[in-house]
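Z., the sequence and structure:
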Amino acid sequence: MRILIADDDPQMLRALRVTLGAQGHEILTAADGRQTVAAASTHPPDLLILDLGMPQLDGMEVIRTVRGYSQLPILVVSGRTDAADKVDALDAGADDYVTKPFAIDELLARVRALTRRSPVAVSRPVVTMSGVTVDLIAHAVTREGQRNAVRLTPTEWKILELLVRNPHRLLTHADLFTEIWGTANVHETGYLRLYIGQLRKKLEPDPSRPRHILTETGLGYRFEPDA
């Protein structure tokens, strides 16, 4: 398993690298927030162990940025013991929180618990589909050979982002309604179909015969990126 450890304390980095490496894991390290975001996107890990108090970007910003394109497990390991810091980190998208100092056995147990979960789709931050590039970090869609970005409405972007973040996976009508509008109102599928149609017109080479935003009749939609 590949683990990315992000901490600006060299001694902590070294200790965690040795401890987790001895368990057979491949270890990547980062000493600041920008390095962490770059490493998480170019060499996607299976787990991110993250300190909150880092230079460049603090841990909270790292969590929000990574959550923009990935659902990889995030374990915060921080000296901040205030309950509000824990709540803020978990609300931002962290999966678990350990305070320093900690027992190694406890940390290893938390790592095992997070990585026992079923695998989730972790899409690349940049995905292509027939000459169209979707950049999940920049929140931008561009077409090859065109200088201006493809303009999407906020709702169109939310739907596209959900599909792109879950390639090859069926997202049911209820999944999409719950994520976008906060209700599983599957009786209004025509409303969703309208947005899907608009996305196909803007992104598909032939909207009448879509290759990437596919319909699963009576169930929902599925995204197929370029091979």
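The chain has two domains: 2-115, 126-223. The longest strand covers residues 2-6.

Let me know what you think.
H.
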